[in-house]
Amino acid sequence: MDKLLDIENLWVRFPTRQGVFDAVRGVSFSLGRERLGIVGESGSGKSMTGRAILRLIRPPGIVEADHINLGGVDLLKKTDKQMRAVRGQRISMVMQDPKFSLNPVTTIGDQIMEAYRLHNKVSKSGAYAKAVEMLNAVSIRDADRVMRAYPHEMSGGMGQRIMIAMMLIPNPEILIADEPTSALDVSVQRQVLDIMDALVKERGMGLIFISHDLNLVADFCDRVLIMYAGRIVEVCAADKLHEAQHPYTRGLLNSLPRLDAPRARLEVLRRDPAWSETPSVSGRV
Asked: Which fold has domain 1-90+174-238+273-285?
């Protein structure tokens, strides 16, 4: 598989009054032109892993790794100025809630055009045409009206589509999607996933899909990394996720309601302290 990204021994640490807290601990994985899912409970280190790749962890947070290679170049060795050329142009990230990612006092059109013009020397009219084209690509009707609108005038589903359009307009090699459908109803969720799937296939991108929804990841992704307490405890093919062997993954699966196997009471997820001490499983291919 053509490797777009390779991460070796990633750690994310935060100093606290009680000592140093390890949010991500020794994570290693690679990403090809595929849909890679990362699942786990809240606090398992999923979002921190995505942010660390783009070096969005600010002091006093500490990011350490043997390497975070993008196309053979270690991102940890780049300056902040050099990283600004990577963010958006080579790796984009769709945050969990568009209400906190979009500027509330700037029109949607100006924000999308800014994302495009930051990495491309084009006129304002050229950027406008490209922005409208991208909004159409994510199935937004009446794109000209949306370009003039402000974020608060959009629904949650529209906001997520706008964020996807904004992140994809520079044509990045990798898209990191952090719970992009968690706040959406089922019908809109499927539409957003179909849009992302089509764009990833058409552009040959790599996708890191961060989620807590195991059924969604099993249906949508190619491979899955299961994280617990900042470590990768299991790696499996997405279509084999329901055959996973690690007791933590089994516990997550057994805590989900199933129409084909109804139960009077769902199992409570049990945790073993030993799981957090076991070295991370490699997610390389």
From this structure: Rossmann fold (3.40.50)
